[in-house]
Each structure stands twice: as C-alpha cells, then as structure tokens.
Amino acid sequence: MVAVRRLALLALCCLACGALPAHAQALSLAYKNGDTYKYKFDTASKQTMVAGGLNLPTDVEMTADETVTVKAVDSAGTADLAITLANLVIKTTTGGITNTMTGIPDSTVDAKVAADGRLISSGDNQFGSGSPFLAFTGLSGGFVSAVLPADAVKPGDTWSKSYDQAIPEGSGGIHIVSKSTYLRDESVSGFSAAVVETKSNGTMDVAIGSSSSAGAQPSPSPLPGMATIPEQGMAIKATITSDVTTWIDPGAHRILKSRSTETEDGTMTIDFPGLTLPGTSGPMTMSGVYTTDMNPA
To answer: Does residue 17 lie within any of the structural domains?
Structure first.
C-alpha cells in the first residue's frame, strides 16, 4: 500500500514538473476519396529579374478562397487532389505602378500529394509550389506542407529526407534535402495540432521543350485570359531554400494550417520561336523571396 502511494506521489510530481514522457504519435496525411477541405490562401513575393540589362523588380500579392477536393487515393496513400482557388485578387507592383486584378474566374489545378506531405506534382508545371518558374509568375500551386515522418514521433524529434522530383517533359529535375522537427503541440481552431517545421535546400536543373523535341507545344495559361507560354528551348537552373511550418491534426491526419517562406536564385535561358524580346537571347537572372499561408476558412 505504501509503495502504491509512493508511485502515485511520484507520478503527480512528474506531472507537475512536466517530466512525464511525451507520447509518440504518427503524423501523416490520410485523405479519403470525396473529402473536401477549405482554406484562406495568401501568397506574397518580392522578385527581381535581370534580362538584357533591364532590372525588373516586382512585388506580387495574391489572396483567394481555397478548396481542396480529394479525387482518389492509391494504396501508398498518395492522393490526387483538385485545388480550386476562387475569389482571386492579384496585386502587382512594378516600377512604382500597382495593378490589381479582380473578377478572375475560378482556377483549378490537379496535384498529387504523398502521405508524408511531399508535393509530387502540381498543375501543368509539375514542379509544385517550389518551382522557380512558377513562383516568378507570382503564382503558387496552392498546397504547402512540411515533410512528415515515416515513424511515430514526439515533440523534439527530428528526421531527414532527401528526394528527387522529375519532370514529365524534357530532362533533369529537382534534388531536395530536408530536415524536419516536431516542435510542439498547440490548439488551432479548437483542434489539437502537432507543429512540424521542415527546412529544405534544393537544386534545380531542367530543360523543357527543347528545340530537338518534335512538336513541342506551348504551356497552357496559368490563369484564364493570360497568354500561353512557349517553352521551346527553355532551360532553368536554380537554388532553393525553404522553411515550412505545418499544423497537423494527428487524429484526422489532415492539415489545419501551413506557412512557407522560400528564397530562390537562378537563371533561365529561353528561345521563343518567332519572338524577339530584350534579354531572351541569353540567360535571365532571377531571385525572389516568397511567403505562402494556408489558414483555416
């Protein structure tokens, strides 16, 4: 009886001192066909492009209502998602002149997302939200997630993953080295959330729609009403660093909210058939800082 009382007292003391070990839990995405999730999507960037001696600094802000619809999930847990951005507002500032676009039709892109949160492909670009090419347009794939662990973890645990992202057309790809940390637990909109941070470094070296590719076609417009983008002879080299923090509901295995900060530096060499623009005969230097938020709607 005395021993039981001592154990009870020890447990109370440990609880009061915060010394009880944290419970390890699985952190992964487990989407189901037909599920829908709604977020407020915000992205902002400060970009600079140098082409043919022209220095073109541009600030871009975009807000939208985001709906993520699960179309299918394979046996490995990789989900096919339809990401719809509605009520889009895009504001660009270049050379001290600001333009705001509203009344834009809803835009939907398809994405493949692994159970560990990695964005395998997104939209027509196939690079996802970390693409220098897509990011320099001021747009984003609309999906942001930290890289989640393969095993059960507790606050303070870390894990690393290195992986490659290929492109469906052309050659080359992106190599990414990431390190993640389970920071803490906190409440988000009344739900208990595990907060995970992933810091990544990436290198990108791709050639898209080269002149040797017979019948190369332009890329579809990233937004309705915008011109198509010819890709013949396009080559991109870039370095990417990112810091993503994601709040995961460990019970429902879903993203409650997410935030990303990313820097990119690179060069792009293009050959637009029949089109002559300043700087298009040589490499264009590009750099930028981007922030993206997915908040509960």
So the answer is: no
